Amino acid sequence: xxxxxxxxxxxxxxxxxxxxxxxxxxxxxxxxxxxxxxxxxxxxxxxxxxxxxxxxxxxxxxxxxxxxxxxxxxxxxxxxxxxxxxxxxxxxxxxxxxxxxxxxxxxxxxxxxxxxxxxxxxxxxxxxxxxxxxxxxxxxxxxxxxxxxxxxxxxxxxxxxxxxxxxxxxxxxxxxxxxxxxxxxxxxxxxxxxxxxxxxxxxxxxxxxxxxxxxxxxxxxxxxxxxxxxxxxxxxxxxxxxxxxxxxxxxxxxxxxxxxxxxxxxxxxxxxxxxxxxxxxxxxxxxxxxxxxxxxxxxxxxxxxxxxxxxxx
Length: 313
What we know:
Structural class: mainly alpha
């Protein structure tokens, strides 16, 4: 009796884990799809709330676009000379830069000081950290309204004293600037303290212990150890503070409305005024927005490169 021998099927190639390459590719494809699904909400958020408005601003900047008339067609580059010729443009730029420098110095310096105070404190650490962080839970617009009432010469708690001394918190350009800075420091000092505290806690204690054994004073330890090792945190907080200050709007709009005598108009408030008050010209406002965006990108690049160079040194 004859037997039929069937040829054996070729073996399926497997990997070291015993899985076929086809299955591995399928698994990778599934993981990729799952990853894209998780990232989809964030991607939609960025597209709808950042990319689309950015494209619209560039379109406005190159078009004749009155507020109530809609897009009247391309007129590039007419809006940019009009934006630069605005009578408040240079004043707003100078004031914004002045405010940015003062706010950055105060917030970074005070934030670092409060972080050192909390870190060195042993008994009151939790209380101090909570007390400094409480104002950060309040929205900037709400805080501005709160201080607007506080500074009021009629209904404010200091109204009688200001009348007696002949002083107003918002009545002169310098008083309005410093009163607004006090609000910003009160609102954001705890937030920058928290960032600084995270950076300080990332410095190994062994480094401090070795410096104390070598006889280093508190000032020497702070200058030669704390500040150099804190440079990444200082870079982050400086970029955040400068960016936020250059884009200041709510606090001045609520407290001063750009006054007195248009002395506290920021560049963002100027954009708002051009778009929705007076000229009602979205095209010129878009051109101003593009100019501010370009300046902001350049300033941030300079800051990042400066801190990177210091870190390498």
